Amino acid sequence: MGSSFKERASKNLLSCDNTGGDAHFRRTENDFSNMYARDLLPAKNGEEPTMQFLLEVVEILTTYVRKTFDRSTKVLDFHHPHQLLEGMEGFNLELSDQPESLEQILVDCRDTLKYGVRTGHPRFFNQLSTGLDIVGLAGEWLTSTANTNMFTYEIAPVFVLMEQLTLKKMREMVGWPNGEGDGIFSPGGAISNMYSVMIARYKYFPDVKTKGMSAAPRLVLFTSEHSHYSIKKACAALGFGTENLILLSTDERGRVIPADLEAKVIEAKQKGYVPMFVNATAGTTVYGAFDPINEIADICEKYNMWLHVDGAWGGGLLMSRKHRHKLNGVERANSVTWNPHKMMGVPLQCSAVLVKERGLLQGCNSMCAGYLFQPDKQYDTSYDTGDKAIQCGRHVDIFKFWLMWKAKGTVGFEQHIDKCLDLSGYLYDKIKNREGYELVSEGEPQHTNVCFWYIPPGLRGLPDGQERQERLHKVAPKIKAMMMESGTTMVGYQPQGDKVNFFRMVISNHAATRSDIDFLIEEIERLGLDL
Amino acid sequence: MGSSFKERASKNLLSCDNTGGDAHFRRTENDFSNMYARDLLPAKNGEEPTMQFLLEVVEILTTYVRKTFDRSTKVLDFHHPHQLLEGMEGFNLELSDQPESLEQILVDCRDTLKYGVRTGHPRFFNQLSTGLDIVGLAGEWLTSTANTNMFTYEIAPVFVLMEQLTLKKMREMVGWPNGEGDGIFSPGGAISNMYSVMIARYKYFPDVKTKGMSAAPRLVLFTSEHSHYSIKKACAALGFGTENLILLSTDERGRVIPADLEAKVIEAKQKGYVPMFVNATAGTTVYGAFDPINEIADICEKYNMWLHVDGAWGGGLLMSRKHRHKLNGVERANSVTWNPHKMMGVPLQCSAVLVKERGLLQGCNSMCAGYLFQPDKQYDTSYDTGDKAIQCGRHVDIFKFWLMWKAKGTVGFEQHIDKCLDLSGYLYDKIKNREGYELVSEGEPQHTNVCFWYIPPGLRGLPDGQERQERLHKVAPKIKAMMMESGTTMVGYQPQGDKVNFFRMVISNHAATRSDIDFLIEEIERLGLDL
């Protein structure tokens, strides 16, 4: 009871084989130079080397974690592919026939982190998934250690139940009565969206499963011109054809115009197509726009179309009493994609597709493989989830999310989301009247996305026209390249439609503060001054 | 230099903030009861609690690792779903609005492992993926800590290059000149097989991508009646229809009969179908059979069909000079699935699809999303892999594999595979003439699969006939159920075709020894004695 934490920790961690006395532990780092993977468990006497090796790895990782949150550390140490391929000092990516020592393996671990990108750094704003949640990280470490597979209750009893309970909770937040319905965690939002298209097709044309697309009429699907490209990928993969995905026009804020949907539905019907599926986006990738779900749902009901809500990015707002109104109508959807690995800060990968009608996932995907899903097991095999999936083996993506939810509570996610949206409001207020900035669209941010052009002093006097546009188009890539070279921060940019390259700032990192927003703006101005 | 490892480890791990003296570290476990997730980084003064919490998690995990390799530990502590759902003492799966203390989170971590299944235990034989490789585990821990995404070089420079080099090495082992070609790591063998079907379709009928399946003639695909169900799932998902997947007959060892393929190709053509794709399995799920690739390749060439080799399970044998002949002809394949997470003991998930012709993956899947794959980046964007994938975000599955390859060398994988196949030979020799055993097929095992019936004494005198078959059908499930209840070992069973339930023993665990095989047989006989 009175022993120090240090003593206790090391005693427990290294108590594996202390029968030989402390001599066993008198090792310096150099000792790993004579140790190889074959000396680790299950090798005879492998317990002690195993513990020492893992502890050394943990030291590398915890050092990395500490530095990740340290603003004096760079976000990245950029090198071009050819530089890394040629080999940095002591870091050779080539694989060889003979084993390397564990010392070299530890060096490789350090170098892998050194030349990587700190996605948890408070100034990493480059993607929708940022941040390093400590409880989530612990959850991932445990998941790796358990090293099992979601397909049967038999080998993942706890994880299968956690998935079931968590999916139910998510469906409750969507607003489906008693959280009824179905769902599955998939390897990312693109696959979740693909599921939604597959399930919709199965609902309306179940014979496609056995007979192929010739069993269905000529089908068309609808999605916003601003939606994620995964809907298009799904149309290509599943045999619909990308030309049969009809893009919907949006308003100046990037939201689908419902009247445009209805007009295009009518037009398609007149041409002999059968409108089957509409994707409404809750939080578009670039603008963070929320399509008007209720109006879209009205049209879906009227024309008997499947309504999917892609809330990969915006789904997290359902956890916030302040912001969930942006998804009003989501309870009318037939299916919903929601990626906790984006706005909710769960480590990658963690994406769910939720389905209102029970049985469709199973019906759509089941192949009843007798060697995996034996009906004569001693437990209730309805808990075996494998036959619902398009995958066979399925990674355990649930545990980290479940553990974070336990640790933060629903209120913790709500605070996180409200804070990130507050920060984007701060950025918006900061730049909306600031010299040298132009917002891509007017009005308060809908999500944490703030899209803007930075106009370097040298361009400010130019009249609007082709020359200015061409020069402005090059500004964001140049600033971004300098940012990466200096390693100070990272933010994304892209063109959109007829708009030249602009910055897309997004905030999902729980470590970011107003000072980091200030830093970003200072950095853009510092680097862009002479462009 | 002279300090003990214990001291050094704890000093380094906890050196984060020792300015306040040792008082900071005088904590007992109970202290976590007043700590919450909000006290961890990025919280102010969060560094020390973070390190303490992570170290405590590591202690739980390393204890689990040690016990996993300890044969006096059970493989599992079985509970029915309703038991776990009702809540075990102190372990409540339900999620709540308010946060739990970190103490509870640590208890949850312990309980999650306690009620799970030790897939790394030397006596866990239940799946094709078993074992807990320590270097692979370290690799997963690092991957979780890096928490990034494979879609662009920009945010995963090192991992993207590792993937590229490793895929090239795998293609070399397949036998493609200079390792040329393409490939990608995907979330499991089912998705890798799905890729192969998509790419084949794109190669022959590229218009399907834009126009849908109506742009192709009536297509048929071929695979063994013993092949993995993922080929069928792909046919359902991609719009071919499962009825257009033609199952090929096999010989008594479970290998495709080439003449049957040719006959069915001719028959399909006569009916007006276009034969497009043949899947040859290298290591079937149940029998471990290797289809004769060369003879199948001859037919594919003759009729201009895509040849895919599903080596999810058997691909690992390419690493063994002794056993790789079983895949002779694999170099003639157009695509190959190979799951290092199966026979090579890499932690889940790690699956690759390799493609002989460069450009097809990109052509098939690219949608050129400007917001992710900006052409005006400062580096060579051909390293951005995202547009090759059907996913958008993609988990980093490469690092653990790369690190294991470094640590073991190619020779280390070879030794692992040779050892597992030796063990299956040992099992085969042990039971082939043993009283109470019948092998499902004659002859030395092709892979590590050994399929057999155990005939309890009470059934041995029965004449072959319906009664004996019906009773024998119930033997394996009963023994398996008792095994799980007692937690001593786990092995799979299933029926196949007209064969009643039999055990399928597979060995991929590097911790398994002959004594574990002996134990399994003793256990089957002990539990099955009175059936």
UniProtKB/TrEMBL annotation, chains A, B:
PROSITE patterns: DDC_GAD_HDC_YDC (PS00392). The lineage of its organism: Eukaryota, Metazoa, Chordata, Craniata, Vertebrata. Its EC number is 4.1.1.15. GO terms for biological process: gamma-aminobutyric acid biosynthetic process. SUPFAM superfamilies: PLP-dependent transferases (SSF53383). It is an enzyme of class 4 (lyase). Belongs to the group II decarboxylase family. Homodimer. GO terms for molecular function: glutamate decarboxylase activity; pyridoxal phosphate binding. Catalyzes the synthesis of the inhibitory neurotransmitter gamma-aminobutyric acid (GABA) with pyridoxal 5'-phosphate as cofactor. One of its GO terms (cellular component) is cytoplasm. This is Glutamate decarboxylase 1. The modification N6-(pyridoxal phosphate)lysine is found at residue 342. Coiled coil: none annotated. Its cofactor is pyridoxal 5'-phosphate. Keywords: Decarboxylase, Lyase, Neurotransmitter biosynthesis, Phosphoprotein, Pyridoxal phosphate. It catalyses: L-glutamate + H(+) = 4-aminobutanoate + CO2.
